[in-house]
Amino acid sequence: MSTSRLRPALISVLTALTVGLGLVSGGVAAAAPTAVAAPAAFTPAQLVGPYPSDYPPGGTYVPVLDGFSYLRDNRPDIIAQNLRTVERINGSATRAEQNDAVAINYDDRLLSLSEALGQRLGPVFRKLLADGRLPKVAALTEGYTARAMLPLGTTLIEKEIFGNPRPFVVAPGKIERYNRPGEDLYADLGGNGSYPSGHTSMGYLIGGLLAYWLPELGPQITVRAGEIGRSRIVLGVHYPLDVMGGRILATDLVSARLSDPGFASLVDQAGRQLRAELERAVGVPLARFIAADTPYMSTQEAVAAHRQMMTYGFGKVAPGQRNEIPASAAALLKSRFPRLSDAQRLDILRRTAIDAGYPLDKAGSNGGWLRIDLAAAYAVTP
């Protein structure tokens, strides 16, 4: 699907969403009065845009994702390992992992990610969100109609193009199904493709923005995004390669959003609102509150756990492969290292990245996205 065909439809969808969902100043102001003035929302014009980063180059993300085609056509050993890994993770999942995976399936990605904010800050964030105190954050990141996520609608196109059957379809006798009572999360998934994982893409996209707003918690938020991806393997609805592909797509998209001056302005406004509302709620400087909070996990634990989820035990399939971390990825670390240049931020991403040549990594200009380890990059001391 070309950019020219996407543009009119996208503008129409954006207009309907901003009006229908009340993501405008008037809609927020109409909420129940509080002792503190209601925070400002984005205007319809700000939300509609459109913005250059709304459109993937060429209309799809296939160019950065099609390392999968090579594996499917040439590496049956990797495809077999892909399935075995699902069977192992699904079959050995603890009750806590099962429950978390089911909750992630039904919860909004933003709520799932908020677990990473800490024992005390997480509940504060969720209350502010529920009370309508974070309208700009909500407009960009909450729900399937979140403004930052609109390009991810194209994942339906990618899933159709790659057409990979899901694990519980391929090996029904070897996959345990985990459900809420009275629900069947598998019912609607059997007929659509598995690659890439949409939950993972959304988790890493929203997680990338949340980490950008709260860089003090960047490693923890990033590992929670990884857990959202892993939860799909626990459920047996996605493979490791699906999850890795979802991370590739999301990292590309977050970088595009933050490199797009117009959209980056929305992100910065939402971040300022978030930090101001959190500080108002906790009553002390946010950095001090975070430092005194009980973390989701330590920074070291988060970095180590995320590194394991980057490759899921796969070895290199192209040991001699060479590529560079894409230059636009430097924007990912702007809030973490505001005094550094883009070249210096890019160097941090290079130094903390995994090697080239793992499954789905590519040579050339569309490669390098798989290698980016945001948890490790956020953990670097300024």
Write a brief caption for the model.
The chain is mainly α and 382 residues long. Helices cover 56% and strands 0% of the residues. It contains 20 helices and no strands.
Q: Termini, distance in Å?
A: 42 Å
Enter the CATH topology name.
Vanadium-containing Chloroperoxidase, domain 1
Please tell me the CATH architecture by its name: Up-down Bundle
State the order of secondary-structure elements, H for helix, E for strand. HHHHHHHHHHHHHHHHHHHH
Largest sheet descriptor: none
- Radius of gyration over all CA atoms, rounded: 20 Å
Average pLDDT number? 90
For this structure, what is the CATH class?
Mainly Alpha
Q: Tell me, what's the shape?
A: globular
Helical fraction = 55-70%
Catalytic activity: a phosphate monoester + H2O = an alcohol + phosphate
Signal peptide: 1-30
Keywords: Hydrolase, Periplasm, Signal
Subcellular location: Periplasm
Q: What's the arrangement of secondary structure elements?
A:
Blueprint: H1 3-20, H2 25-29, H3 44-48, H4 62-65, H5 67-74, H6 76-92, H7 95-106, H8 109-113, H9 121-130, H10 135-141, H11 155-162, H12 167-170, H13 198-213, H14 218-234, H15 240-259, H16 261-282, H17 286-292, H18 299-311, H19 342-352, H20 374-379
